[in-house]
Design a protein that fits this description.
- Chain B: It catalyses: 2 Fe(II)-[cytochrome] + nitrate + 2 H(+) = 2 Fe(III)-[cytochrome] + nitrite + H2O.
- Chain B: It comes from Caldithrix abyssi.
- Chain B: GO terms for molecular function: 4 iron, 4 sulfur cluster binding; molybdenum ion binding; molybdopterin cofactor binding; nitrate reductase (cytochrome) activity.
- The structure holds two protein chains of two kinds.
- Chain A is of the alpha+beta class.
- Chain A folds into two domains: 102 residues, Alpha-Beta Plaits (2-Layer Sandwich); 77 residues, Alpha-Beta Plaits, CATH 3.30.70.
- Chain A has six helices and seven strands, in the order H-H-H-E-E-H-E-E-H-E-E-H-E.
- In chain A, the strands form three sheets. Chain A has a two-stranded antiparallel ribbon. Chain A has a two-stranded antiparallel sheet with strand order 3-7.
- Chain B is of the alpha/beta class.
- Chain B has four domains: 86 residues, Phosphorylase Kinase, domain 1, CATH 3.30.200; 239 residues, 3-Layer(aba) Sandwich (Rossmann fold); 200 residues, Dimethylsulfoxide Reductase, domain 2 (3-Layer(aba) Sandwich); 112 residues, Beta Barrel (Barwin-like endoglucanases).
- Chain B is 33% helix and 18% strand.
- Chain B has a seven-stranded mixed β-sheet with strand order 6-5-20-19-18-7-8, with helices on both faces.
- In chain B, helix 5 packs parallel to helix 21.
- Chain B is globular and about 70 Å long.
- The chains are: A alpha+beta, B alpha/beta.
- Strand 4 of chain A pairs parallel with strand 4 of chain B.
């Protein structure tokens, strides 16, 4: 232990450890910490990628700047396409869906506006409420609080058939890495609600 | 044993990572990872009045983690998310680390000693030129009992002015008034233990889920286990607390007194009253005079459910249902906070809640109590018990009583004439006097009045013009802006002392790290200031926190809030003691005024004969509690055509008070990044306001541009703003009218209007 440890090294280890633990957990449920969602009115991912003309009209009209252009990973098929990162800014599912109205390519369609963006999933291993810390943040902030998500035995529980996948819970979750994630509905976007 | 660099890195990195989100939080972690690395210390949470036990984890002289104390009876290891992020407040960049004096509008760094010399010189000048009443002190329900005690002595006993107040005036004063007038002595009769034994809860004027999350968790767990437990909520706003509600009454803000009277009427009319208890333990009074039971019934005649419905807007059948729930329940517990206290008739509202318990005899029994929740960790301990208000002296004593002044002056070692027999200026009057220049110097400790006073902007003038000293752990705050001198205070974990929470429980907090920078414990700042002002003899004896506590403990001996048996030695071992604790072998008291209360037990047998309870408090006569026939009164500023909306302010779960602590945690800021105004969708539609629009909220006192949140939480005709942010200061809008009895301002109701920005 005579070898001095630099602050940088130490921090690297700390965060490295953190990331691996959280990622391990994420892999188990198949949702990355920074999972991206397709904008409202999209069909499955394959269809979306083939129809979207990348004009970014939806990006520019979104009143909450929730829709952004995916630039995280050039290897990813979604590279350059519009997506929503709920951790940065969740979707408010506007009443008039300006993003869908703005879409000329047919990638986003009004008749699909009621299709959920995904379903919220609680990561029990890092969620405060499952660790003895009372934290109803996701439940309190959910626009469908008490319907789509509620506190059961002091823990948040998602009603899958009610959740719209808007991601507000992901945005507000006060753990360092979000303990609630949206599992995107990609292939089988079924008509719900 | 040799440890390779790699291994060391791995274990300590894991430990730090785990500690940073709390022990046991990471999957697959083992506790022994922490052996010899993180040291855990038993303490008390810094935030609300619940008094949760925490374990503070330190490593290399730094606070690295906070977890729930499993042995603490209040929270049994549970914590809310605010407490979890406390280490971020301790280690925040916004900590004030040195003293500063303002010269030509700019703060200049000085030593604490220089700053105190300067303050002492200024204060002495003011005292000589304008008299002692030109000086004032404004303290806090977050200061330790020891700190408030020192301020009390310096101002009331040495400088010789009763202009010594604290922010509990803004939050608990009406509850004090309520308990004194109803039960004869301040603070609740029961404890949190009643929660698990109650069959019925009335949560009135309290968003327990967000303001007292751990108590709410206890209530929720109790209800989950016992589905027959019924919960009534009376609140103009739908809040997260509603998830446990069996019935929710939504009165128009400020019009709930009639409901409580109507409930009392139904309880009597339908035979739910405990006539035996009423006969043996209760007297009746109208606003001034003693009346009898028949007179009270006569008074209640007017309060039919229909009348109450017309006043409050709550359907009459719901009021009847609520009264029957209360009446039928085997045991009943009422919990309330600011929705009741922060009102121009806060004392009356408190009385009317306790009326229901006295009428039904649902008090003094397990699972039964009329229980006021406190908002700050030591409002009960330091300020109510410690006497940190302008009319009080330590140990539930009053400045107007000569005997009390003598007792205190003797212990303080000051001439009794020094303590003025007249109460000083209460909070609103104090800041008014600052505006007028009647008070020329003020010492503000551990609180942020420039943001937290009602109608705040009105009082900035006085803060700007007079000599202001602010002792704080954080910089900048809305108040330090107006300071002439800022003194760096040691923060929680950097000082030892006692906090007394809602349930009369006094708990000890150790010092686990050195103060940041030059920061000094507030009690010692006051001690040294006292010495520098010339009160050497009076202050030189205090060398440790225990010196102060022991002296205070002596003053409580034989009082109704007897803490004589709560020595530091004991408090260091146990998870707090609920007074009265008259001796070192006394375990503390669960229920006051009845069997098991040492003061009740010591009463002569003839007094207790045929009586389950004896209200022995200083304001009660012959052991009787009082049922009050208080008139009905609405808010000070009702809505009208010009200002058609009723504005209410309050808390969110993730932030606390003016945010100086919670806003140091980015995670909490992420959860609630800014203020907003909640508007009912029907009102929003009429005004053409959409969710997230910028709107301007106006009252007769100010206007505030803020984001709209269209949500069905406030009832139509009402709006709600959380008050934590300096940038969106809700208190620019609130009204500074106050309860004539308790002098507590009516933060909870004023008239407002909204337009699009």
């Amino acid at each position: 232990m005579s070898e001095p440890i630099s602050r940088k090294d130490f921090l690297k280890e700390v965060f490295g450890f953190f990331r691996t633990e959280v990622e391990k957990e994420s892999r188990n449920i198949g949702i990355a910490a920074d999972s991206f969602l397709l904008p409202p009115g999209a069909g499955g991912q394959d269809e979306f990628l083939q129809t979207c003309s990348q004009s970014y009209q939806c990006v520019s009209v979104c009143p909450y700047q929730a829709i952004e252009v995916f630039r995280n990973d050039p290897q990813d098929a979604r590279y350059g396409y519009p997506v929503i990162n709920p951790r940065r800014q969740a979707c408010y599912l506007c009443e008039d869906f300006p993003c869908i109205s703005a879409c000329k390519s047919g990638a986003l369609r009004m008749e699909r506006k009621t299709i959920p963006l995904g379903t919220a999933v609680v990561l029990k291993d890092i969620c405060f409420s499952y660790k003895g810390i009372y934290c109803p943040s996701c439940v309190v902030k959910c626009p469908l609080s008490g319907i789509a998500i509620s506190m059961v035995d002091n823990k948040p529980v998602v009603q899958e058939e009610e959740c719209t996948g808007c991601g507000i819970c992901v945005q507000v979750c006060p753990t360092e890495q979000p303990a609630i994630r949206i599992k995107p509905s990609t292939q089988n976007r079924m008509e719900k609600r | 044993m040799t440890v390779s660099r790699r291994e060391f890195l791995k274990t300590s990195a894991a430990a730090t990572a785990a500690a940073s989100i709390g022990v046991n939080l990471l999957p697959g972690m083992k506790n022994n990872l922490f052996a010899g690395q993180v040291e855990w210390h038993k303490s008390v949470c810094r935030y609300c009045g619940t008094g949760c036990g925490v374990m503070v984890g330190t490593k290399d002289g730094k606070v690295v983690a906070v977890k729930g104390d499993k042995e603490n009876t209040i929270n049994r290891g549970h914590l809310c998310v605010k407490a979890f992020y406390l280490p971020k407040a301790v280690n925040s960049k916004t900590r004030l680390k040195h003293a500063m004096i303002k010269k030509n509008g700019k703060f200049e760094k000085v030593t604490v000693d220089e700053a105190l010399d300067f303050v002492a010189k200024k204060f002495n000048e003011i005292r000589q030129k304008h008299g002692a009443n030109a000086l004032a002190f404004y303290g806090s329900g977050q200061a330790e009992t020891e700190e408030t005690y020192m301020a009390n002595k310096l101002w009331k006993g040495c400088i010789g002015t009763n202009n010594m107040e604290g922010n509990p005036r803004l939050c608990m004063a009406s509850a004090v008034g309520g308990y004194l007038t109803s039960l004869g002595a301040d603070e609740p009769a029961g404890t949190y233990q009643d929660i698990e034994q109650a069959k019925f809860f009335m949560l009135i004027g309290s968003n327990t889920a967000e303001a007292h999350p751990i108590l709410f968790e206890r209530i929720m767990r109790h209800k989950t286990k016992n589905p027959d437990v019924q919960i009534l909520i009376i609140d103009p706003r739908k809040t997260p607390t509603d998830q446990v509600a069996d019935l929710h009454l939504f009165p128009k803000p400020g019009y709930d007194l009639a409901i409580l009277h109507a409930m009392a009427k139904i309880i009597i009319d339908e035979g739910y009253a405990d006539e035996e208890f009423i006969k043996t333990s209760v007297i009746f009074k109208d606003n001034k005079n003693k009346i009898d039971y028949a007179g009270y019934k006569e008074f209640l005649k007017k309060y039919t459910p229909e009348y109450a419905s017309q006043r409050s807007g709550v359907p009459a059948e719901d009021i009847i249902k609520a009264a029957r729930m209360f009446g039928k329940a085997e045991t009943a517990m009422s919990l309330w906070t600011m929705g009741i206290n922060q009102r121009t008739r806060g004392v009356w509202a408190n009385n009317l809640i306790t009326n229901l318990h006295l009428l039904t005899g649902k008090i003094g029994k397990p699972g039964c109590d009329s229980f006021s929740l406190t908002g700050q960790p030591n409002a009960c301990g330091g300020v109510r018990e410690g006497g940190g208000l302008c009319h009080l002296l330590p140990g539930h004593r009053l400045v107007v009583k000569e005997k009390h002044r003598q007792q205190v002056a003797k212990v303080w070692g000051v001439p009794v004439e020094r303590i003025q027999p007249k109460p000083g200026k209460h909070t609103v009057a104090m800041f008014e006097a600052l505006n007028k220049g009647e008070i020329k110097g003020i010492y503000i400790m551990c609180t942020n009045p420039a943001q937290s006073l009602p109608n705040a902007s009105k009082y900035w003038k006085g803060l700007e013009e007079q000599f202001v000293v602010v002792a704080e752990s954080f910089f900048p705050t809305a108040t330090t802006k107006y300071a002439d001198v800022v003194l760096p205070s040691a923060f929680w974990t950097e000082k030892e002392g006692v906090y007394g929470c809602t349930e009369r429980r006094s708990q000890y907090m150790p010092k686990v790290k050195d103060p940041e920078g030059d920061a000094v414990w507030d009690a010692f700042l006051l001690r040294d200031l006292g010495k520098k002002m010339g009160f050497v003899k009076e202050f030189e004896k205090y060398q440790t926190a225990q010196d102060i506590w022991d002296e205070y403990r002596g003053l409580t001996k034989g009082q109704d809030m007897d803490l004589w048996g709560a020595t530091y030695d004991r408090l260091k071992k146990v998870r707090g003691l609920t007074w009265p604790v008259p001796s070192e072998d006394h375990p503390g008291t669960y229920k006051r005024y009845t069997d098991g209360d040492p003061i009740y037990d010591a009463l002569p047998a003839e007094k207790k004969k045929g009586r389950r309870m004896y209200f022995y408090g200083p304001k009660a006569k012959d052991g009787y509690a009082t049922i009050w026939a208080r008139p009905d009164k609405g808010p000070e500023e009702p809505t009208d055509a010009e200002y058609p909306l009723a504005l209410s302010t309050g808390r969110v779960m993730e932030h606390w008070h003016t945010g100086t602590m919670t806003m140091t945690a980015p995670e909490l800021n992420r959860a609630v990044p800014k203020a907003y105004v909640e508007i009912n969708p029907s009102d929003a539609k009429k005004m053409g306001i959409n969710n997230k629009d910028q709107v301007v909220v106006e009252t007769r006192r100010g206007s505030l541009e803020i984001e709209a949140r269209v949500i069905d939480r406030p009832i139509p005709g009402t709006i709600f703003i959380p008050w934590h942010w300096e940038k969106w200061m809700a208190n620019i809008l609130t009204i500074d009218a106050f309860d004539p009895g308790s002098k507590e301002p009516e933060y909870k109701v004023c008239a407002a209007r909204i337009k699009k920005a």
